[in-house]
Specification:
alpha/beta, Metallo-beta-lactamase, Chain A, nine-stranded mixed sheet, 10 helices, 426 residues
């Protein structure tokens, strides 16, 4: 008998109604399920994909306790909205700040903050129901600016600082304008500093508490400028474009983070949406993949949308685990996951961990050939790297409340990213 999408979904519905695909918790983590997440300990590297249903927010804790927040979206797509989480009683920035205070070793102090690019699902913007910081910059208290109502940021980055004209002019939009007003106030009145994010740099984002770990962050791209993989050399993919780039996503900041033998990639909404003179996409995402090289874990570009995770990118990174933030009813796309999971792109096992797709999207995902390697436990996704970077786990935490309850654990996995990256360079 032919199975329908509803049959697939029912097969993987647990007693609580949470979606659970065949990829299940490893025995080593079973004892943690149902308990409160144990949190960060010195020597561990944690990455939290915080699910609010209103955009992307990713919080990092480095092995020495240095912390970094990349993005805090606040946007509701009218056509493709999913429910807010935990609920709609607070705006996303406040939920993100409350989450950070639960997991950050220094509570309300965060060392680094960055806006990957100027879209509201990453930085917030003025909109209905958002208060204005009257008399202190007159910016909308939305997204990252709202997080800053509760959290103090040390150093901040965006793609346009300091003049917002070079190398790629920032096309006027509400997110960019609002972030600039907020940042100007925070620098002047709240002790935050701003720096230019420079592709190729290996020393710009660094451990600030203890320099005792084999840990570093490599800046890969910003404004279509991509590290070549040699020294600090870069290539400007937009230098020959006659018109300013009208698309924000491919201009996103991206980086790799290495801890001992472990390697991780994150890159905002990098995709293929800027056409070149010949009409073909400017290959920024592909070049970033080559610069990153083999990694253990990827934070999926552009929420797993159709125009990201190209075959060229996937063949370069060859990750074991893919983490994906979703916030609309069409994320992640089957086409994007298909490229990630295709054995034609590289050999070896891999698993896919989206935060919380809507029910209808989950139904469609379970029809894919990859369903045995798709986790649909639903919630915040946490990556924990430990044993000096030698191993890592992936957790799902409940997102419908603030309990930090562990819903599933995957791993431990052995790290091989550095070995494969070094082999590529020989």
């Amino acid at each position: 008998m032919k199975r329908t999408r509803r049959d697939f979904l029912k097969r993987f519905l647990g007693a609580s109604g949470a979606l659970c695909a065949p990829l299940r918790c490893h025995a080593a983590g079973a004892s943690e399920v149902g308990k409160v997440y144990d949190g960060w300990r010195e020597g561990e590297f944690d990455v939290h994909l915080i699910h609010t249903g209103r955009g992307e927010a990713i919080f990092h804790v480095f092995p020495d306790g240095t912390s970094m927040l990349i993005d805090a979206g606040d946007w509701k797509s009218k056509e493709k909205a999913i429910p807010p989480h935990p609920d709609g009683s607070r705006r996303p920035g406040e939920w993100v700040a409350r989450y950070i205070r639960r997991v950050n070793p220094l509570g309300t102090d965060v060392d680094y903050m960055m806006l990957s690019h100027y879209h509201p699902d990453h930085g917030g913007r003025p909109q209905e129901g958002v208060e204005t910081a009257a008399g202190r910059g007159d910016y909308a208290i939305s997204g990252l600016a709202q997080v800053a109502e509760f959290i103090h940021f040390g150093a901040a980055f965006d793609r346009g600082y300091p003049d917002y004209e070079t190398p790629v002019p920032v096309v006027e939009n509400p997110t960019a304008d609002n972030f600039r007003r907020f940042a100007a106030w925070a620098v002047k009145e709240n002790g935050m500093t701003m720096e230019k994010f420079e592709p190729g740099r290996l020393d710009q984002i660094r451990l600030r508490k203890k320099d005792a770990y084999d840990f570093h962050v490599r800046n890969l791209s910003a404004n279509g400028i991509v590290w070549t993989g040699v020294g600090s050399d870069t290539h400007d993919f937009l230098a020959d474009c006659a018109e300013p780039a009208a698309k924000e996503n491919p201009l996103s900041l991206s980086m790799t983070i290495q801890y001992g033998p472990f390697r991780y990639y994150t890159g905002g909404d990098l995709d293929t949406s800027i056409p070149g003179a010949d009409g073909a996409p400017v290959p920024i995402e592909a070049a970033v993949g080559r610069a990153a090289g083999p990694v253990d874990v990827v934070k999926v570009n552009h929420h797993g949308n159709l125009n990201a995770s190209t075959g060229e990118f996937v063949r370069s990174v060859q990750a074991r685990a893919y983490l994906c933030t979703v916030w609309t009813t069409n994320q992640p796309s089957n086409d994007s996951i298909g490229r990630v999971m295709s054995p034609d792109n590289y050999a070896g096992p891999r698993d896919y961990f989206p935060t919380l797709p809507c029910e209808r999207r989950a139904e469609g995902l379970l029809e894919g050939a990859w369903r045995e390697h798709l986790a649909l436990d639903g919630g915040h996704v946490v990556l924990k790297v430990f044993d000096g970077g030698a191993r890592y786990k992936v957790y799902y935490l409940a997102a419908d409340d603030e309990s930090m309850r562990v819903m599933a654990v995957y791993g431990p996995f052995d790290s091989t990213g550095t070995a494969r990256f070094d082999a590529r360079r020989i």
